[in-house]
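W.,

You were right to be curious about this one. When I first looked at the sequence I had no strong expectations either way, so I just let the prediction run and decided to look at it fresh. Below is the sequence, 181 residues in total, followed by the output.
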Amino acid sequence: MKSPSIILDLLCRSILFLTVCGLIGWCYETILTSILWGHFCGFFSRGLLHVPVCPIYGFFAMLLLRIFRLPFLKRQTGWKRCFWAFILGSSISTILELGCSYLLEWILGDFLWSYSGWLLNFQERISLPSSLLFGILTLLLIVAVAPAFQKLIQRLSRRMICILGCSCALVLGADLAVTLL
């Protein structure tokens, strides 16, 4: 059985990773929609929360990294690892995005995103171009984001990780409470 301090450390690292990936997802969405709409769409017009974080990207990233720890995928290197990152990232993210769109619509009573006008979309919830973009994002996650995060986190003390993780959890939790209430 793991000690409480190890569990807290792991939880704080996970919250930090979720926050970093959520921030990257928010930046991706803000840039993409600004390009698609032909004007800057604003700092607070993406995602459910008020802070510049889209947690769905963090949850998806954590799940994808778990999948890439499977023995078959761990053995893949070089271009084969990149190939699997792109293919699985596109496929899994698309399935998750579709499922989340239904779940969030059921919970919130609102349709949070739409791919109307996008090539080969399904019920405006998913589309081929977005799936391909998610494959590229997964490739970046595996090749750049996760390794950079690991290097950064190794430089921080356990106490600093705990402080940052708890701070992010409090901010995200408070924002979610304000958003949903």
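Here's what jumped out at me. Strands lie at 121-122, 126-127. And, maybe more interesting for your project: Residues 4-37 form the longest helix (34 residues).

Coffee later to discuss?

I.
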